[in-house]
Amino acid sequence: MKLMYSAVSKEFINSGVNIKCATTTQERIIKSIFSKKASNMLGFLDLPNMQKDEIEKYKTMGSEIRKKYKDMIVLGIGGSALGIKMLKNTFFDSINETPKCNVRVCDNIDSDTFITMLSKLNLKKTMFNVITKSGSTSETLAQMMIVLNRLKAKKLDISKHFVITTTKGNALYNFAVENNIPTCEIPESVGGRFSVLSAVGLLPASVMGIDIEKMLAGGRQGLSIASRLDEKNIPFTTAYINYQYLSKGRVNFVTMPYSDRLALVPEFFAQLWGESLGKKHNLKGEEVYAGQTPIKSLGVTDQHSQLQLYTEGVDDKIIMFMTVDKNAYDEVISEEIAITKHLTGTSLKTLLDYEYISTAYSLAEVNRPSYTISLPCICEESIGELIVFMEMMTAFMGSMLKVDAFDQPGVELSKIYTKGCLKMKGYEKYGENIRKFKKVSSKFSL
Amino acid sequence: MKLMYSAVSKEFINSGVNIKCATTTQERIIKSIFSKKASNMLGFLDLPNMQKDEIEKYKTMGSEIRKKYKDMIVLGIGGSALGIKMLKNTFFDSINETPKCNVRVCDNIDSDTFITMLSKLNLKKTMFNVITKSGSTSETLAQMMIVLNRLKAKKLDISKHFVITTTKGNALYNFAVENNIPTCEIPESVGGRFSVLSAVGLLPASVMGIDIEKMLAGGRQGLSIASRLDEKNIPFTTAYINYQYLSKGRVNFVTMPYSDRLALVPEFFAQLWGESLGKKHNLKGEEVYAGQTPIKSLGVTDQHSQLQLYTEGVDDKIIMFMTVDKNAYDEVISEEIAITKHLTGTSLKTLLDYEYISTAYSLAEVNRPSYTISLPCICEESIGELIVFMEMMTAFMGSMLKVDAFDQPGVELSKIYTKGCLKMKGYEKYGENIRKFKKVSSKFSL
After folding, report:
1. pLDDT digits (tens, 9 = 90+) for A322-375
2. Which residues in chain A are contacts of B315 at CB distance < 8 A?
3. Cα R_g (chain A), whole angstroms
4. Searching chain A, which residue's CA lies closest to the CA of residue B13?
5. Do A77 and B300 touch (CB under 8 A)?
6. CB–CB contact A410 B108 (8 Å)
7. Is the ipTM of this complex over 0.90?
8. Whose CB among A32, A75, A109, B341 lies 3.0–4.6 Å from A38's, allowing a Cys bridge?
């Protein structure tokens, strides 16, 4: 992985934004994270170095599921979904491939989608991987109950159609054990959005046939870069660039890969960046309303949708491009008609590269800052390294902003009101609030 | 379609944001748009009332293609892609259906995706719909040349495998005529991002089996609402709410449907809103750097990703929720285990509704403004109405911001540099700039 930050050109050079953090600050932040003093939720740092027998478990389970089942449906949401969706797109969908056992992720509870999907499955040949760290995610459990109902109606043995990935010892885990349902564990110290290199992502990856050992090796490479104490620490440098730009008012952060294979990376990164850094309070308890809004984009596609705004709209963004040096497939344009002579002899990939560099340069020309992360190619190693890069960049940015990058207190309120709607004991008053709110709403509707 | 704006609750009521525009201003803006004095690019207002014979043409072509071909590949980007992708998702993908003739949109030039897709097609049974208003979009023409090469290699009659949708009389149109390739026309006065209800969207919709007459009827309903001179003009009211919030510093605009079937609506809307309003100059030529950054979201999925940031991060957003009153499929949760008793007896759709209202309320509690657009159901009429709503809201917002909502000058620079890279005559100096830029870049890379 390489970082090219000169694409920021004039703006970067004249803006007072540095790439070198004060050495002592960098050392302090890196040491507090790698010594795990910064938080008790830094277990994701250990995942790339997990024990051989844990890796073997996922490989064996994965290959057995792949042999016996046509589909594996992941029931999970947020951190239990986004990494898997990204891996599926990177290694399959984007190159028009389907895994032998097709892994699909259900991360919404829209009944139109969920019920129609279930009714098209051959349940006898379907495995369901329920993934929820707490074991109590309402959406996931709702899906699971509907599946349970269908399996029982077909008199299918539920222990043969569920794998449950959760924290050891919680109520869902115990349900699994009582019913002989195989389990995979998410360590207590690994937060949902940092869990893709745990069982959460590794089992589905293994089912799809992705080489998880190579992915973990890439993760170790990412850790090694992230522990450097100089500016070659790419996640630290990029976090520091963002930190400085944010303090100058650049509240929006665009991620724009020039690669269909990386098309879901911005979606995965948006959770890491948004949920980790968007915080009302800093570690001292002061109100700071921190964070930088992640914006998902895709090159060249969004040149024809969002580039106008990035170039001429409110100047409050910084752009992280992602590029891939070498594609697996390419083709030179050899046919021509009168209006395509300028394209003849150029390959599709070369045209993509030209469009990226032209976009980066045209933004630099109008002093809109950007930098580029480039991968040598798409493979398990480079993706493992990219995952750890994004996790570490987020953790470093959290330290710079002095917020807890590993909690999500702001989503609790919505969950409480949902419990109120469901008339859960102890939540009655919240249900009452919602009823009043609806009444006021209907008065103001057109 | 209904608008519920009380979800903004305290913030809305106390913030000085009104829903009623001064009547004279509203009248002036609406009249200048509907009389087409505001711009010569307002042809999209006529599309829902197009001639019967034009509708018949798309219906007939659509049904013939559906009978004869297994796949129709759309080669197009931006406005020539996003509407079609949205319709495909709304009426097929989101409910796990595949059209009899499968319409797929290629809106990127990543060779890994494009080449692998081509090699999996049975070209004999494949139609290619090339869509580009100017007839000169490099990405689309590059794709077309590669396809042309493959068709010739297989000795297939190109007039049987292409339909070209473009402006009458341009070079691509003339190429089609010379080669007996059927054509569909995009009126000069219809901009790309406002073109989904022209041949651009109607032919692919018709091929998929979507009832285009009903969709246009929905569009007429949308126009009728948009021409009202009171606050029941929903697109005007929402534009005005956004205009006021933007002037108070809410620079980000989140679109968050609680429906998988509307999951690509934010993507479609992001082009309309971003490319139309993100402008350096206003109509007087003054530097304004106008616009509001569109942010794509999905409920409930993004409650587990972006809600934390929306609730606690920088307070610079306004949220437009979208809901659907009635789903086509639903199921009551009847199974239970120890930890799911609170869910028993609730249907999946009801749970979705609870989560939406709880999220809207919890945001209102912390004074983060939102409003909700609700559709009675998903059908051709409601989607046609929604499309016109989004177009009109954008046009009205353009008038309020006093910018030209129908051009995109900011993307020209990037196109010019790409031509420089391609060594097109007259663009040599731009190529030289890029080479210098690359040299500086490599100096600054890690």
Report:
1. 999 999 999 999 999 999 999 999 999 999 999 999 999 999 889 899 999 999
2. 289
3. 23
4. A444
5. yes
6. no
7. yes
8. A32
